[in-house]
């Protein structure tokens, strides 16, 4: 599934700030958490000439640098982040992913394009409104923990609330609640230097959660951690999202991390989007050879669901046999078919959508499935 432009989006010709004060607008409940259109970030001399010039827009990164002395870190990017989803931006070093996440709250000013949060124009925010967005609506977790070494765990977690002007007793009580939520109970009075890397990252995560942001932004937060600690932190993010349903934008260069965490993944290369879709869509239908190389070693059966593996059911098959939900992973379906000794039915809302058997499941594992020919069709249960 490749991305397409939203032609109805209104383009902002530059990242110009308002000079007058802006009052926060009421969130539009129908709007995405973030809506990004035609976004560019160009570094170099006279950067604002690049996005509007058809000749420059089509040049490769190397050609653009040679011709203009500019580097397009983000190139003509469109995407929405839906409320409550974990949206992963993935790419190799230099792909533009970290620059992109910083433009969402204007830690880096975009060169052109538009960014809306809850329907409100982020590029039109004045200094005070932007400060409120960063302090209350969003929070960022960086790879560098950024903890204050002279403060205790509890006071580090409470720091964002202190900046907001929350009273000491209230902010420490809130910090205590979050410390327990991220598994640091009993370490409240320790200093950062007395903690492991994983524990320090938990403090960073707790500090972000303490201000109760609408959106959590993660910029490769676990890349410096040991593999086992990294996995523990990934599990912590999954658990917190399951319990709270908070919107998250997660930046990573690690495909396995992206597949574990993401509801959707946006894969970037040279500042542009290569493919955007669910983990299953990207693994099952890579957009090009670049994506295909990325997913080559992914165990397909652990990502692809039976919805893509099933075949049509005949009348005799549609009424009996073990039932599987459409989102059942192929790895679990293999076990179900092996245990039952017969094909299994894919059933949703009492309707048989199709059948999975040894042949179809093995085709997925071998990478020759090509997608289900029954997707979107239903066979009425008898």
TrEMBL record:
Chain segments annotated as coiled-coil in the UniProt record: none
InterPro entries tied to this protein: AAA+_ATPase (IPR003593), ABC_osmolyte_uptake_ATP-bind (IPR051921), ABC_transporter-like_ATP-bd (IPR003439), ABC_transporter-like_CS (IPR017871), Gly-betaine_transp_ATP-bd (IPR005892), P-loop_NTPase (IPR027417)
Gene3D superfamilies for this protein: P-loop containing nucleotide triphosphate hydrolases (3.40.50.300)
Keywords, ordered alphabetically: ATP-binding, Nucleotide-binding, Transport
Domain of life from the UniProt record: Bacteria
SUPFAM superfamilies: P-loop containing nucleoside triphosphate hydrolases (SSF52540)
Database matches in NCBIfam families: proV
Name of the protein in its database record: Glycine betaine/L-proline ABC transporter ATP-binding protein
Organism: Streptomyces luteolus
